[in-house]
Amino acid sequence: MSTGPRSRAQRRRDTEHRLTHDIDVWVASASPDGTPHLVPLSFDWDGEALLAATAADSPTGRNLAATGTARLALGDTRDVVMIEGDVEVLALGALPRPAGDRFAARTGFDPRTLTAPYGWFRITPGRVQAWREVDELPARQLMRDGRWLD
Questions:
Q1: Which of 7, 12, 27, 51 is found 20 to 30 A from 67 (Cα to Cα)?
Q2: CA 13/CA 101 separation, integer angstroms
Q3: Distance of alpha carbon 27 from alpha carbon 41, whole angstroms
Q4: What is the pLDDT of residues 62-105, one digit of tens each?
């Protein structure tokens, strides 16, 4: 039961908390011909972008590399954060070691130790929305064009 809508400032604080404490995110991507794909991936948030890793030749890896965009979801349907962002693809060796070490420590997964060809995918949010109940839908947008709204 809702106690009324949260302020935008509170929803931003809640979103930033989720970004710094959650470990997994749903990643939606599409192939160039529009075939959708959805998978959970572990991530690390550095305050500006989410870092994820997946097999370079997986549907998600191919889609992210081909389109350069992704849609992400944190939480559940009664407390969701939706993120749309641009994707930068990095080879495993191209990421600075401290960033890779931080990802591995936070997620418990280090793709640098695998023999399969993995890639890093740095997703920079351009649009962020967050809501819990229908009363938060009218003001759900927290970020537009990569800038947090007041």
A1: 12
A2: 26
A3: 7
A4: 999 999 999 999 999 899 999 999 999 999 899 999 999 999 99
pLDDT band at 2 (very low <50, low <70, confident <90, very high): low
The answer to whether the CB of 71 falls within 8 A of the CB of 84 is: yes
Note the helical H segments in the chain: 8-21, 59-67, 97-107
Exposure class string for 82-115: b at 16+ Cβ within 10 A, else e: bbbbebbebebeebeeeebeebbebbeeebeeee
Separation of CA 75 from chain center: 11
Taken in order of first residue, the domains within the chain and their CATH numbers are 8-138 (2.30.110.10)
CB 61 within 8 Å of CB 116: no
Does pTM surpass 0.90? yes
Tokens standing for 134? 């229908």
- 5 — phi, psi (to 5°)? -70, 145
6: left (phi over 0), alpha (psi -120 to 50) or beta: beta
